[in-house]
Amino acid sequence: MPVDLYYVPGSAPCRAVLLTARALNLNLNLKLVDLHHGEHLKPEYLKINPQHTVPTLVDDGYPIYESRAIITYLVNKYGKGSALYPEEPKARALVDQRLYFDIGTLYQRFSDYFYPQVFGNAPADKDKLAKVEDALQLLDTFLEGQKYVAGPNLTVADLSIIAGVSSFEASDIDFKKYANVKRWYETVKSTAPGYQEANEKGLDAFKALVNSILKK
């Protein structure tokens, strides 16, 4: 059976899954979810994912949601032995730490700061911006002397974090002023398989959406 991915191209979590699939050379059956018209709230979608979020993966009838759970699942099932999600306990723990940092701190703070401006017409909050800057400083520290966020190899942590950090380009946040983050960003862009197709296209869609909303 095909592996179905319910997604929205501009979504950073969705792009993280697309990047992981490309790194695994795994073909996904893409199913576009029209959030604007409430497809994610329809009974058939709620039956798959009661949280009504994207992305949602369905593999042989088994649904998984939350992008970081999806990407680790994909490597566990389709990339045994891959450095993307190492099996050695300490190496895996470091990848997990970075993923938890991403969902709980870095991407969360970006979301708290930027999305109310885009989707709620709220003014920029300097205190929330300071928290984003603090998270970027932590990321910069993690990258000191490291090629990737969890060591010498590209992992799902890089793919998840770059999907989110690339979205910063649609905002007023200058993440490239952090030298280690800037170097890492360019490294992942040039080494992640299928980066252009899996992330850049969706990022362009996100930027276009932001511009169309903020110009109103």
UniProtKB/TrEMBL annotation:
Segments crossing the lipid bilayer: none
Organism: Euphydryas editha
Domain GST N-terminal stretches: 1-82
PANTHER family from the UniProt entry: GLUTATHIONE S TRANSFERASE D10, ISOFORM A-RELATED (PTHR43969)
Protein name: Glutathione S-transferase
Quaternary context: Homodimer.
GST C-terminal domain residues: 88-209
GO biological process, one term: glutathione metabolic process
Lineage: Eukaryota, Metazoa, Ecdysozoa, Arthropoda, Hexapoda
GO molecular function: glutathione transferase activity
